[in-house]
Amino acid sequence: VSLTELLAITALVRQRQPQVMLEIGTLDGRTTLNMAANSGEGAQAFTLDLPKQPGSDARFIGKPLARKITQLFGDSVTFDFSALRNAVDFIFIDADHSYENVMSDSLHALGLLRDGHGCILWHDYDTWDWPGTTRALNQLFLEKKEFGMLRHIEGTSLVYLIREP
Fold first, then answer.
1. Would 25 disulfide with which of 2, 70, 95, 138, CB 3.0-4.6 Å?
2. pLDDT value at position 53?
């Protein structure tokens, strides 16, 4: 995530003030930490990544904001999201960028939104190195009415969907 993209993500968090956030694809935890830092005092951030590898500690471990972050481990395609179903206000998807996984993560995300409302944000759209993300989001936009309001943030590789009541 570039600095410009990080600023866009945190601006959306500050604007929307989600109570429950989910990041799919933790990597080093930089985005999770910034989402937690820009959310309200009572907000909770969950972050899902593949099982921990030695030396891969996320940046938020041991930081004061870690109290707002719950680290989850698993593959997003097979992960049991039932505890978060209908409970999440803001989702950031930046995991496996294959077409199949972006489709799976996107459809899972839609079912996690509280009462079907909230914000879903994707990373790596319209980049030469991740064509699966672009293909999946374009198909969802064209074929699924629930994704008909997808919008690209100019100057970034971010796409967002805001579902309002």
1. 95
2. 62
